[in-house]
Amino acid sequence: MTTPTIVLVHGAFADAGSWAPVTRQLLDQGHAVLVPPVPNRSLSGDAEYIRRFVEQIEGPVLLAGHSYGGAVITVAGADENVVGLVYVSGYALVEGESLGQLQGGFPDSDLAANLVYQPYTLPDGSDGTDVSVKIDAFPAVFAAGVDVRTAEVFAVSQRPLSALAFGEAASVAAWRTKPAWGIVSSSDHTINPEVERFGYQRAGVRAVVEIDAPHLVMQTHPVEVAKVITDAIAELD
C-alpha cells in the first residue's frame, strides 16, 4: 500500500500549532503531513470540513485526532480514502452519542469548573455560545507540563468550541470499519483518562499506549506520539 498522508486534527481550545512538535518529528522522518484548521463550530460541520479536506488528498490517509479532534475523526474517518485512525487523548464516540454523554459517564475533570461561555451570532442570525478556558486557569488545566511562557501564549490564542459540539451526536463511528489506535494521557486533567480508556476499549482499538502525560501530550511527548502514528502506518503496510 502507498504510504498514507498523515492528517493531524486538533481539538477544542487549540489550533493546528498544538501539533507542531509532532509535525516536525514526522516531517523529519520523511512523511507527508497536513494539519488543517478545524472550525470548532459543530461536530457534523467540523467532520464534514475534514472529510472534504481528506477527499482532496491523493492516495490513502491516516487520521490522528487529539481530544475533540478524536470525535471529529470518528465521523470524518468514514471517508473512503481513510485507512486508519489514531486517537490522541481523544473521544472515541459511538453512533448516536455526544461528547457530553460520553464524558458525563465519568467523574468531572478539572476543566468543567474553568470554562467561560460567550455568546456569538450564528449565520442564520440566531444566538450561539462559544466555550473557552479561563485564561488564568489555562496553563494548569489545559496546558500542564508545557513551558509556562508557551502555555500563556496558547491561553490567549485558544480557539473556542461552540457549545453545539458538546451535545451533537455522532452520525457514524468510523472505527467500526477502519483500524484504530489510541493514546491515553494518564495524567490528563482536561479529559478524565477513563473516558479515553473506555472509548478505546469499546472501539476495539488495535493497541492502547499509556503515556504518563498531561492533555497536550503532543507538546510534552512528541517522540512517543509520533511513534504511535508511525507504528500504525507500519501495521497498515
TrEMBL record:
It comes from the Bacteria. GO terms for molecular function: catalytic activity. Signal peptide: none annotated. Residues 6-227 form the AB hydrolase-1 domain. It holds the Pfam family Abhydrolase_6. InterPro entries: AB_hydrolase_1, AB_hydrolase_fold, Sec-Metab_Biosynth_Hydrolase. PANTHER family: AB HYDROLASE-1 DOMAIN-CONTAINING PROTEIN-RELATED, ESTERASE_LIPASE_THIOESTERASE DOMAIN-CONTAINING PROTEIN. This is Pimeloyl-ACP methyl ester carboxylesterase. It comes from Microbacterium natoriense.
